[in-house]
């Protein structure tokens, strides 16, 4: 079998003829039922080899976006957000799929949005667990990530949602302990974002791991450090994950005090700086695990230098761990972000105008051959994960209503993973 493989950023990519000619041929014939069967068989046989093939990668992105558009068509809030106000004398003749694609997806043309692919089967995932690893400052923002999504996902598909109770502000290496508690003992939080008492915790079976923001770096560090547990992870998803670091983090880290006060985790100059960048941080929520707060380590671990070096140092382990990997990213603009994040967007625009206000699209991708990019979503970094912020925490910003179609996006992900045999 001829497979497209790569090493790390900047290294040569050895490309060859498609390793799955039957799938390529079925795509030419528009025989999508055969494509779906062939891809599932390829992933079941060798998921990493299949996801290293350019033809299969392109199909999986297309298939995911198609399912996402279908899911949005059944979601009233997504359709409302996609509607564009028109002058009274004009009529928008675009279909709902075109409107949704234009609102929520970048780089999707009319032909793709209107493509008639086979309807995806509704999976029943009663034996599966989605292990969610949240990001930096989780629990310190006005809402929890996917707070209104997880319960609906759990109810619809029967899948178990288990959140790793990672510390909001400490290093990636330290947070692997929290992820280990989740995967080995079922400790963490449930679909309602509530802490699971130790006596009620149940060890999950195999999991699909999804990391958001710094949580993706935490999860990758866990997988590198725990080779004995990798077989328990059937797929790994980076959701606007900080794999390549953040130029915003570089700037913050350069201004941190090398010897911060330990009297209070978010007090003094550090707290003032963080609130200047993220005014909605709620420091009064800092009531537990106080001794574990390490702002310098948490921010330092998502700087571009540290993350780039980490990937370079561990490229062989990441390539060889045998876990099919997927990523999604956000793309926004200056007029779509909270006003207090505007300087961040301007800063990132000097590197890449395709950014989500905290990271560029390149930094959200894992640079190994078997990592498949599923979508570039139109939305900023918080929009992709958080419900609308309560009115009293909005600081006068109109761009924290977070209208991105999070539920359709997550539902489409589970449907796709089930279709290719990675969840059942």
Q: Which SSEs are present, and which pair or pack?
A:
Blueprint: E1 5-6, E2 13-14, H1 21-28, H2 32-45, H3 47-51, H4 54-73, H5 76-82, H6 96-104, H7 110-114, E3 129-133, H8 150-157, E4 160-163, H9 172-185, E5 207-212, H10 214-225, E6 233-239, H11 247-254, H12 268-277, H13 295-300, H14 304-313, H15 315-320, E7 325-331, H16 342-349, E8 371-378, H17 406-419
Parallel strand pairs: 3-4, 3-5, 5-6, 6-7, 7-8
Antiparallel strand pairs: 1-2
Describe this structure in words.
Helix content is about 40%, strand content about 10%. It contains 17 helices and 8 strands. The strands form 2 sheets. It has a 6-stranded parallel beta sheet, sandwiched between helices. Strands 1-2 form a two-stranded antiparallel sheet. Strand 5, helix 10 and strand 6 form a beta-alpha-beta unit. Helix 1 packs antiparallel against helix 2. The protein is globular. It starts with a strand and ends in a 5-residue tail after the last helix.
């Amino acid at each position: 079998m001829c497979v497209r493989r790569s090493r790390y950023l900047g290294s040569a990519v050895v490309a060859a003829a498609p390793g799955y000619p039957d799938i390529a041929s079925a795509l030419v014939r528009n025989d999508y039922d055969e494509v779906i069967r062939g891809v599932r068989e390829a992933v079941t046989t060798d998921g990493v080899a299949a996801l290293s093939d350019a033809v299969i990668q392109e199909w999986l992105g297309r298939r995911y976006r198609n399912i996402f558009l279908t899911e949005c068509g059944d979601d009233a809030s997504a359709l409302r957000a996609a509607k564009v106000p028109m002058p009274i004398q004009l009529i928008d003749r675009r279909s709902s799929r075109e409107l949704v694609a234009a609102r929520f997806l970048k780089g999707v043309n009319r032909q793709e949005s209107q493509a008639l692919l086979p309807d995806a089967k509704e999976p029943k995932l009663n034996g599966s667990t989605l292990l969610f690893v949240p990001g930096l400052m989780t629990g310190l923002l006005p809402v929890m990530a996917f707070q209104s999504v997880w319960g609906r996902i759990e109810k619809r598909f029967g899948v178990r949602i288990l959140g790793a109770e990672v510390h909001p502000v400490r290093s990636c290496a330290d947070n692997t302990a929290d992820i280990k508690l989740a995967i080995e003992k079922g400790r963490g939080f449930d679909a309602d974002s509530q802490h699971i008492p130790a006596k009620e915790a149940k060890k999950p079976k195999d999991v699909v791991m999804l990391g958001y923001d710094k949580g993706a770096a935490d999860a990758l560090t866990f997988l590198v450090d725990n080779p004995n547990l990798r077989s328990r992870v059937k797929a790994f998803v980076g959701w606007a994950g900080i794999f390549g670091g953040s130029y915003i983090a570089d700037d913050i880290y350069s201004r941190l005090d090398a010897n911060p006060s330990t009297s209070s985790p978010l007090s003094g100059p550090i707290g003032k700086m963080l609130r200047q960048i993220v005014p909605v941080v709620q420091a009064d929520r800092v009531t537990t695990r106080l001794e574990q707060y390490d702002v310098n380590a948490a921010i330092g671990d998502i700087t571009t230098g540290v993350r780039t070096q980490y990937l370079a140092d561990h490229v062989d382990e990441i390539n060889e761990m045998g876990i099919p990997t997927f990523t999604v990213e956000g793309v926004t603009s200056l007029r779509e972000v909270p006003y207090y994040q505007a300087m961040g967007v301007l800063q990132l625009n000097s590197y890449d105008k395709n950014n989500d206000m905290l990271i560029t699209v390149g930094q959200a991708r894992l640079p190994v051959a078997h990592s498949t990019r599923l979508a570039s979503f139109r939305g900023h970094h918080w929009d992709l994960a958080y419900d609308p912020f309560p009115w009293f925490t909005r600081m006068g910003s109109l761009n924290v209503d977070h209208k991105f179609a999070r539920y359709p996006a997550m539902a489409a992900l589970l449907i796709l993973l089930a279709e290719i045999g990675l969840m059942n």
